Amino acid sequence: MTTATQTATSTWTIDPTHSIAEFAVKHLVITTVKGHFRNFEGTLHIDEAQPKNSSVEAKIAVASIDTNLADRDAHLRSDDFFNAEQYPRITFRSTSIESAGRDHYKIAGDLTIRDVTKEVVLDTEFEGQIDDPMGNRRAAFTATTQISRKEFGVKWNQALETGGMIVSDNVKITLHIEAIQQK
Fold it and tell me: Cα(89)–Cα(128) distance, rounded to whole angstroms?
C-alpha cells in the first residue's frame, strides 16, 4: 500500500470486471472444486502514511455463484448451503490492518455469511499500482484466508461409505482485486 507517488488518504473502488472472488473446497475427500462469485463490489479507504487507519468494505451477491455446473450452483443457492433468497449478500468489513512485511498486510474483519458473523484474517499482498490508458490509477491486491463453512451455518453434507464427507468443512478463499482510485 506504500508508493512514492501516492500520499494522504485515498478512496478506491473494486473493479469487478478485473477482479475475482473465488473459493476452493474438497469434494469426495480427494478432489478440489472451485467456484467464484460473478457480482461483487467494494471500497478501500487507504491511508498510505498510516496503513492501520485504512479500511475495506465488500459485498458479494450470493446468487451470482458460479461453479460451472448449473445444478450445483442451484443447490449452493438453496437453504442447504447459502440460502441466497433469505441471505442475498456475503459481506466483509475490516476491523484492523497490520503490516506483515514489505507489501504484505494482515487485514482482520467481520465476514458475514447467512446470518453469522465471524472474524477472519485476510493475508494480503499489495501487487502494485499503475496508470491505465484512460488516465485512471489502478492498484492490485491478492488476499487469502480459510474458513470453516459450518461455523457460518453452511452445514449440508453426506457421509461416504468409505469414510469422510462429500464436501469438506474447510473452504479456501482467494481474492484477486483490482481497484480504481476515485478522483
Answer: 29
Residue 142 has pLDDT above 90, yes or no: yes
Over residues 119-128, the pLDDT tens digits come to 999 999 999 9
Domain ranges of the chain: 9-181
CATH number 2.40.128.110 given to 9-181: yes
CA-based nearest residue to 56, from 137, 136, 117, 111: 111
Do the Cβ atoms of 83 and 129 come closer than 8 Å? no
Task: Provide the 10 A C-beta neighbour count for residue 42.
Answer: 21
Strands (E), the chain: 9-14, 20-27, 31-37, 40-47, 55-61, 65-66, 89-99, 104-113, 116-131, 137-148, 167-181
Query: Helices in the chain by DSSP H: which ranges?
Result: 70-77
pLDDT tens figures, 65-95: 999 989 989 999 999 889 999 999 999 999 9
CA distances (Å), origin 54, targets 49, 50, 148: 10, 7, 27
With a cut of 80, say whether residue 149 has pLDDT above it.
yes
Rounded Cα–Cα distance for residues 14 and 140 (Å): 9
